Amino acid sequence: MKDKRARVVRCIRTLPAGTVSSYGALAKAAGWPGAARQVVRILHQVPGLAWHRVVGSGGAIKLCGEQAAEQRFRLRMEGVTFRGARVDMKRHEFHFSKVKLARSR
DNA sequence: AGGGTGACGATCA
DNA sequence: ATGATCGCCACCC
């Protein structure tokens, strides 16, 4: 359904610079649990999203080669720190509020 | 309709 | 920590 997709997009858009979220957590936050792969697809389809703020569970960069480098670069540029090969989730993971998220109020 | 695929996730050896 | 496997779900041929 497209609602879910729109919701995912909205969630991604609410991610502040300097924070990250995981594909799975993001899907869940958007009310679409287990749709990590769909989130991936959306990131591919919808241009203009902060795709670099979405990482794998535990803060792992799931891309390969230059794409991975690009993502790390962009994140570090936003102030995100790493713990080894992964994002330091303890400090940067974004916790979506329970509240129905950002319907502009 | 059927089968393959993917910027995933959790689990197990 | 690494690699294999299975579950998941929408999209594409």
Describe what you observe in this structure.
- The protein has 105 residues and is mainly alpha-helical.
- 45% of the residues lie in helices and 8% in strands.
- It is built from 5 helices and 4 strands.
- A hairpin with a 2-residue loop joins strand 3 and strand 4.
- It is globular.
- The model has no long low-confidence stretch (mean pLDDT 90).
- The structure holds a DNA duplex (13 and 13 nucleotides).
- Main sheet: which strands, in order across? 1-2
What is the CATH class name?
Answer: Mainly Alpha
Task: Give the overall silhouette.
Answer: globular
Secondary-structure arrangement, i.e. CATH architecture: Orthogonal Bundle
